[in-house]
């Protein structure tokens, strides 16, 4: 990806970051000191981003400039995840690509029972439990998943996750836009008959 392509993609990337963070333009303006009109023009691609705008945005989102603008990675194929902690939950991003399918490892510490607060948002979610017991509330269903168990659902369905055990619950999440589902393709090879 050349420099012009990276710069063209910055606006939609900034809009996506703000929306995923649940921020309004006004709130982001207050956090960064950048006027709402400038933020709007950045997100719509009507203004090219400069360091004087990108630095406060990187601080607000707690990410590097490279991650903020989606700069192309060098020849090193490794992903260097930077964990994010929210209300006790640790989220480790496993992919760098904005939009499309996003992969995360999530760790919920053991703790007191918490009253579920189901939420909705556009998209599709697939999760796989690695360790522990994960309580998953999907609409009117209240499930407990153990290691190796999988759930997938449309995120318009009210949903909530919590720890259902005495140890940390670790799970993988793949989240995609509405209508995009995770697919697993396997080839069946019949066993040889004697």
Question: How would you sum up this structure, described in words?
Answer:
A 6-stranded antiparallel β-sheet has the order 1-2-3-9-4-7, with no helix packed on it. The protein contains 5 helices and 9 strands. The radius of gyration is 20 Å and the shape is elongated. The protein has about 190 residues and is an alpha+beta fold. The protein has helices spanning about 5-20, 25-30, 35-45, 50-60, 65-70, and strands at about 85, 90-95, 100-110, 125-130, 135-140, 140-145, 150-155, 160-165, 170-175. InterPro entries: Cro/C1-type_HTH, Cupin_2, Lambda_DNA-bd_dom_sf, RmlC-like_jellyroll, RmlC_Cupin_sf, TransReg_Diox_bact_type. Keywords: DNA-binding.
Features:
single chain; alpha+beta; three-stranded antiparallel sheet; elongated
